[in-house]
Amino acid sequence: MSASRHPALSATDPELASYVAAEEVLQAETLRLIPSENYVSAAVLEASGTVLQNKYSEGYPGRRYYEGQQNIDRVEALAIERAKGLFGVDHANVQPYSGSPANLAVYLAFAKPGDTVMGMALPMGGHLTHGWGVSATGSWFRGVQYGVRADTGLIDYDAVRELALAERPKVIFCGGTALPRTIDFAAFAEISREAGSVLVADVAHIAGLIAGGAHPSPADHVDVISTTTHKTLRGPRGAMLMCREEHAKAIDKAVFPGLQGGPHNQTTAGIAVALHEAAQPSFVRYAHAVVANAKALAAALLERGFDLVSGGTDNHLILIDLTGKEVPGKVAAKALDRAGIVVNYNTVPFDPRKPFDPSGVRIGTPSLTSRGLTTEHMPVVADWIARAVDAAAKGDEPALAVIRAEVGDLMAAFPAPGLPLS
Ligand code: DSN
Fold first, then answer.
1. Are residues 197 and 59 in the same domain?
2. Could you tell me if the CB of 91 is within 6 A of ligand 1?
């Protein structure tokens, strides 16, 4: 970080400033393929670092427990109106600190401890907070879990229906963190109606695709939409809960005072800016480009002999099953990192290996698309991945260094939003 970019921070705390500077370089020089990450714009960064930080605002616009809310109310009301407009919902709560507290607030609104709740199993592509055992959502509630079919890697809607009708859960979550295919919200809605359950779509991964029209919206099908704001939506780290009017009070009460104290106003401001950006025609192009890039990357990986869970992708995410390559996911992920390609190791459905040392690698295209890479570049990216996995198998460190240099050259030609150009 140059002193001119963050002069006060550099002067006050040079050690901390040096870590931020190193992170700026890392984010600029590497090919970031973690599907839940992105680059926020300079405007979102600025909004997230304002004096709104200094204010306590327990309550909601017009109904606060502290005075001096003239400006904070406007900021939060703006974020709420923008969320409602963009996602076509009756009500939006923009205060959850992040995705896990947002989901916990949903349980608080609709279930009591010990009640049965249902979601996709974590190793199948779900999320911890969808009732998985090690999460409070799976120990305070009785979590029952569905998965994907072994033969197709796709959600088994017949099994979902059977489980829902047998268990009659209070809440059903659809959505997840490693789902490369379109979610059939209408099918989940029909199942939830039959089971008498509240249906929640956790669209954290695909919120930006929905906003940009590149994935069907759950708005007409579900009771509640939960999302983080920092993935494909390209906002600051935060979350939102959106719902029909009939659930508005329950959701608001669960977030505050049920679960949280004062909202993070600086984050609310960043969310408002991100929602404004996501309402522009350029964001529609971005969302479709994310999907086009992911499809092109999946095709290029298949051509190079990789197995992909479900055989490809409909969205921003690809789950590579490395079982056939005889390089475990963690070994591959660490080798890719040394080659300047940042991914995360991940379980694949029915993984015979442990979650901390699984068989898969999860990648996605939100970040590289934010930098302007197109489908033309995807064969190059697939080549780097293939060469790095091969190098990992052979222990060939010089080959990884060669890839890292090539990655650095391409990244230098595509500056990232929000980072210094140099
Ligand atoms: N940690 C997020 C992800 O990477 O998908 C989910 O919460």
1. yes
2. no
What is the rounded distance in angstroms from the CA atom of residue 298 to the CA atom of residue 294? 6
Q: Peptide bond preceding 257: is omega within 30 degrees of 0, i.e. cis?
A: yes
249 catalytically annotated: no
Mutate to test the pocket of ligand 1, among 120, 124, 127, 363 (most ligand atoms within 8 A of CB): 127
Residue with CA at minimum distance from ligand 1 atom 3: 36
pLDDT at residue 91, as a whole number: 98
The CB of 99 under 6 Å from ligand 1? The reply is yes
Query: Which residues partner with 362 through β-bridges?
Result: 319, 344
In a domain, 319, yes or no: yes
Q: How many domains does the chain have?
A: 2
The verdict on 235 and 333 lying in the same domain is no
Indicate whether 269 belongs to any domain.
yes
How many angstroms separate the CA atoms of 206 and 274, rounded? 15
Residue with tokens 């590497």: 30
Residue closest to 38 by CA, chosen among 354, 278, 280, 310: 278
Q: Is the CB of 232 under 6 A from ligand 1?
A: no
Place of tokens 């529609």: 284
Q: How far is the CA of 126 from the centre of ligand 1 (A)?
A: 10
Residue pair 392/313 in contact (Cβ under 8 Å)? The answer is no
Residue nearest to atom 4 of ligand 1 (CA): 36
Model confidence, pTM: 0.97
Which CATH number does the domain housing residue 314 bear?
3.90.1150.10
Q: pLDDT digits over 202-219, tens only? A: 999 999 999 999 999 999
What letter does residue 422 receive in the DSSP assignment? -
170 catalytic per annotation: no
Side-chain-side CA neighbours of 26 within 13 Å: the count stands at 9
